[in-house]
Amino acid sequence: MDNNNRRSQGWFGKTGKDGLIYRSWFQKQGIPTHEMGGKPIIGICNTWSELTPCNSHFRDLAEFVKKGILEAGGFPVEFPVMSLGETVMKPTAMLFRNLASMDTEESIRANPLDGVVLLCGCDKTTPALVMGACSVNIPTIVVSGGPMLTGRYRGSQISTSDIWRFSEASRSGAMNQEDLYEAERGLCRSDGHCGVMGTASTMACMVESLGLTLPGNAAIPAPDSGRRILAHLSGMEIVKMVEKDLKPTDILTRKAFENAIMVNAAIGGSTNFVIHLLAIAGRIGVELTLEDFDRFSANIPLLANLQPSGKYFMEDFYYAGGLPPIIHQLKDHLNNDSITVTGLPIGDVNASFKNYNEEVIAPLDKPFNPTSGIVVLQGNLCETGAIIKPSAASPHLMKHRGKAVVFDDIDDYKHKIDDPDLDIDENSVMILKNVGPRGYPGMPEVGNMGLPPKVLAKGITDMVRISDGRMSGTGFGTVVLHATPEAAEGGNFAVVQTGDIIELDVLARKLNVLVSDEELNARKESWKKPAPITDRGYVGLYVRHVEQANFGADLDFLKGSSGSEVSKDSH
Ligand code: FES
Ligand code: MG
């Protein structure tokens, strides 16, 4: 590209008062004028925050991206955007994914940037930044922060997936508070995000399979020197992308989304993948439906033996070769000609990588589990769909009929679940309402609700659970999620009652409540829409505009792109 045509020259290439202002304040930072004279100006969009512990090493990581940008002849400028700490943000980080995406979008568009590197880690930071960047569409590469090292507790390996086991163990009396203190000290023992195939690693694999990263990005642990090298190489790559004018719309075609769905099935990725990929597709203008997730994952077996669907950790996945050997093994299924940030087809980019451990990454002809992916359920309890991840569910519950025990909201659940008089047993179907995008608001990860103590005491560890909420990517169980329309919208899910018979048949993709239409309609007549918790501020805006989970839970007015042009100057 001709240097004078660079986007950043719309600022730094100006004469007169405007150019003086744009350049002078950059010189204040010790940047000589020639750096602004036509080099690719590369933004490093950083979600570093001490409130997002998974991303706490990102200031250090950014320095390696900068070295790569400088080496390739670009000029780096690092800037912060809203960060989203999964473990601390109340009521849920998901409430703010769309807000962070707006911050990212406007920060990129409003500034003199020719390309951007997105530093992403903890769950929501990846989709938020990618969504925002897609709505601008200048050359973009993602660098993930990498998973943390495997945890340790009393001589055994642990991960954030064990939180759910520890929680049940403490509720059943098998672990006391001292045991939990000891476990928490060994759980998160290095930089990085959750060290299993939870949502953060799923998102890192998602961007790699979409072609938005260099190969190998997803699995390198955060403390491994390979992570810094990848950051350096990504800095070099974004400069080349600017020179080639290789934009997200060139990479994120419908075929790239199909690839991501197939790869997600092979790795046993998080259910949150569905909601985030739908939202990204909405920004880039690719038609993608809930049914596509079922359709494109149906023929793909589970290859990665990783928690929560399997046994191993992200660290093991890296030593086995990471995502590239999985992509390579799927070559007969994938759209191999989809291009990546390198400008080369994904099939070629991943062709030379080897699988070093068939315990961790199974061969295609001997898969770890023939069942994989996301199953999309239909029926009168989820009129516009719900999802379940069969690889994380119990085989004996995949076809199940039981009496509903309904919790009207999360407080109702917390209030009742430990009550010994609660009429519930292992055959009951637990239903949690009002944890959807609008109802909570923000759609928290509470779908894998803990079992009642009297059931746990029998040694039972799984029951059918259904909600309009989400589940942590580290979670597991026979958990039906993202039921739509959510209870707060007033469909059948809003009026299901304790005692109704629920029929789940995962193989047949059915989820029904065995109550007549007449009865359901009569119940809906007397249903009242709950009042929003607030009309004010971002949360008020969110509640008014958030779409249902089957469309990705983006804000309706954020769909699509506003491009990268800004016609007016600021002075
Ligand atoms: Fe940040 Fe799991 S809490 S990735
Ligand atoms: Mg999570």
UniProtKB/TrEMBL annotation:
Report whether Ribonucleoprotein shows up as a keyword of the record: no
User: Does this entry carry the keyword Kinase?
Assistant: no
Top-level taxonomic group: Bacteria
For molecular function, the Gene Ontology terms on record are: iron-sulfur cluster binding; L-arabinonate dehydratase activity; metal ion binding
- Which UniProt keywords are listed? Iron, Iron-sulfur, Lyase, Metal-binding
Q: Which PROSITE patterns match?
A: ILVD_EDD_1
Recorded E.C. number(s)? 4.2.1.25
In this chain the Dihydroxy-acid/6-phosphogluconate dehydratase N-terminal domain maps to 39-347
Pfam families (UniProt xref): ILV_EDD_C, ILVD_EDD_N
Dihydroxy-acid/6-phosphogluconate dehydratase C-terminal domain ranges (all copies): 359-553
**Matching NCBIfam families:** PRK06131.1 (NF004784), PRK13017.1 (NF009560)
Family statement drawn from the similarity comment of this UniProt entry: Belongs to the IlvD/Edd family.
Instruction: Return the PANTHER family for the record.
Output: HYPOTHETICAL DIHYDROXY-ACID DEHYDRATASE (EUROFUNG)-RELATED, HYPOTHETICAL DIHYDROXYACID DEHYDRATASE (EUROFUNG)-RELATED
Q: What is this protein called?
A: L-arabonate dehydratase
Organism of origin: Lunatimonas lonarensis
Query: Taxonomic classification, please?
Result: Bacteria, Pseudomonadati, Bacteroidota, Cytophagia, Cytophagales
